[in-house]
Design a protein that fits this description.
about 200 residues; alpha+beta; 8 strands; about 30% helix; globular
Length: about 200
């Protein structure tokens, strides 16, 4: 077990179906296009990076990356070589050996496909096997039944709902459902990803 001083290695993470690429300037426009693809679906995400606000969001997020508070990835689908979404390690708490996986947004064409499942698997594997963390957190809107189902399918344990936890892009309040996976649960969760 590490001592809480794990290094945040902002590296490419490769899988069979996706490649997670740390944010860089060349990815700015492909990520903008991926985020702007689904105005209705965005309402379930507390993400303020779309449309006219994208440049402000991009600058703020990259400032957090520079401070070591966040690692953001573009999700590249290997079959098409297209950027199809974004995901991140956030709420990085070194002394508690804990991170959150979130700020995930996927193009509608790849939702409920191997793209999201493999991206989550790669990030969980990195957190538990490279960083030796003890806990990974996930959260979503209480209204986002698709995301909640995906988190349960991963093997994450639902911990509860924080009421009016965030404000959505449209100004409405959002209740957030929290999930976690602990290091001793990781072998079982990992086995669920691997071919039988």
């Amino acid at each position: 077990m590490n001592n809480g001083s794990f290094d945040l290695d902002n590296v490419v993470i490769e899988g069979h179906h996706v490649r997670l690429e740390p944010y860089e300037d060349a990815l700015r426009e492909p990520i903008r296009q991926a985020l702007d693809c689904d105005p209705e679906g965005r309402q379930l995400f507390a993400i303020s990076g779309q449309g006219a606000h994208f440049d402000t969001w991009w600058d703020l997020l990259n400032a957090q990356v520079e401070r070591g508070e966040w690692i953001a990835y573009a999700i590249r689908q290997r079959a098409t070589d297209a950027i199809v979404g974004t995901t991140s390690f956030l709420n990085i708490r070194r002394t508690r050996q804990c991170v959150e996986i979130g700020a995930t947004f996927l193009h509608p064409a790849v939702r409920s496909t191997l793209v999201n499942a493999e991206a989550k698997y790669l990030m969980l594997r990195h957190a538990f096997e490279e960083w030796d963390l003890v806990r990974v957190e996930l959260k979503t809107s209480a209204l986002n039944q698709q995301s909640r189902g995906a988190m349960r399918k991963l093997g994450a344990v639902e911990e509860g709902i924080l009421r009016r936890h965030m404000i959505n892009e449209d100004g409405s309040p959002r209740d957030s459902v929290f999930y976690s996976i602990l290091v001793d649960e990781w072998p079982k969760v990992k086995a669920g990803f691997l071919p039988q």
